[in-house]
Amino acid sequence: MATIVLTDDHVLLRNGLATVVKNLGHTVLFEADNGKHLTEKITTHNVPDVVLMDINMPQMDGYETANWLKQNYPTVKVLALSMYDSENAIIRMLRSGAKGYLLKDCHPVELHTAIDALMTKGFYYSDLVSNKLINAINKIDNADNELKTLIQLNEKETGFLKLICSELTYKEIADKMYVSPRTIDGYRDSLFEKLNLKTRVGLVMYAIRNGIVTFI
Q1: Three-state secondary structure call for residue 55
Q2: CATH assignment of 3-132, given 3.40.50.2300, 3.40.50.300, 3.30.1360.40, 1.10.443.10?
Q3: Average pLDDT of the chain?
Q4: Global pTM?
Q5: What is the pLDDT of residues 192-203, one digit of tens each?
Q6: What would you report as the CA-atom Rg of the chain, rounded to the nearest whole angstrom?
Q7: Where are the domains of the chain?
Q8: What was the pLDDT predicted at 216?
């Protein structure tokens, strides 16, 4: 069984959670109203195995508190309990040092599973967290693929991309680059194929997204 600290500024929710935790056979060392309160109450003599922590709290929120625990009490495993199910909140909390993430409306059975996993494996990734992480990884992979595509562009194509982000016509771009309009058509068609795009607007969006051009 684990020693637990509860950190949540909602007293009724925290009291109810304390009852659930005790019914699961764990020990509640103490409760805290927020992150700052936790940092004031925790000492080397009452370091818990697990901290069940809300994110949205006054004075010190869950992100800051999880990071503080990671720096000062690295053996403590933070299990975030929040109403937020956004990808940003989950990933930011995990980066701050949390070892698990649950929604507050989860079933006590899942809470029991999460605590057991933290004690045996050191982490707990629910289906919610796994799906959000997979989605984030896919976004990173897509960004990497775009970067690889960008690296394959030659100097002429990059120069052409910069110019099409202006109000110049294709003929005016040809004059600016000292090439024929037919050559410009070749640059455009080559980029359409390489980048899987079909319009000038698509090329402009690609140039902006990949930092080829910036607007102040």
Answers
A1: coil
A2: 3.40.50.2300
A3: 86
A4: 0.62
A5: 888 888 888 888
A6: 26
A7: 3-132, 145-209
A8: 47
- Alpha-carbon distance of 193 to 213, in angstroms, equals 21
User: By the 8 A CB rule, do 1 and 26 touch?
Assistant: yes
- Specify the fold of 145-209: Arc Repressor Mutant, subunit A (1.10.10)
Written as six digits, the tokens of 67 are: 């990071």
Q: Phi/psi class of residue 106: alpha, beta or left (left: φ > 0; alpha: ψ in -120 to 50)? A: beta
**Per-residue pLDDT tens for 87-120?**
778 888 888 889 999 988 889 999 999 999 999 9
Rounded Cα distance between 211 and 41, Å, is 48
Contacts of 99 (CB under 8 A, 6+ apart): 77, 78, 79, 118, 122, 123, 124
* Ramachandran area for residue 67 (φ above 0: left; ψ -120 to 50: alpha; else beta): alpha
